[in-house]
Amino acid sequence: MKLYLFFIAACFRVVGYSQNSLPYPKNYFRSPLDIPIVLSGTFGELRPNHFHSGIDIKTQGKEGIPVYATADGYVSRIKIGQYGYGKTLYVQHPNGYTTVYAHLQKFEPSIENHVKKIQYQKEKYAIGNSFPKPAQFPVKKGQIIAYSGDTGSSGGPHLHYEIRNTKTENIINPLLFGLTPKDTIKPIVQKLMVYPLDPEARINNSATQTTLDLKKMEDGIYTTYRITASGNIGFGISTFDRLNGARNKNGIYSLEMKVNGVRVYFHHVETFSFSESKYINLLIDYEHYKKFKKRLQKTHKVKANKLSLYKNLVNDGKLEIKENADYIIEIIAKDLQENKTTVRIPIKGVKSNTVFQPINCSNFSIIANLFNKFSLKNVSVAFPKNTFYEDLHINFEVTNGIAKIHTPTVPLHKKYTLTFGTSHLSTAQKKQGYIANISNPKYPRYCNTRKKEHKFYTTTKILGDYTLLFDTKKPRIRLINFYNNQTLDKHTKLKVKIKDKESGIKSYRATIDNEWVLMEYNHKKGILTYDFNDKKLIGNKHTFKIIVSDQVGNTKMLKTTFFKQ
Question: What is d(CA 561, CA 544) in angstroms, rounded to the nearest whole number?
Answer without folding.
Answer: 6
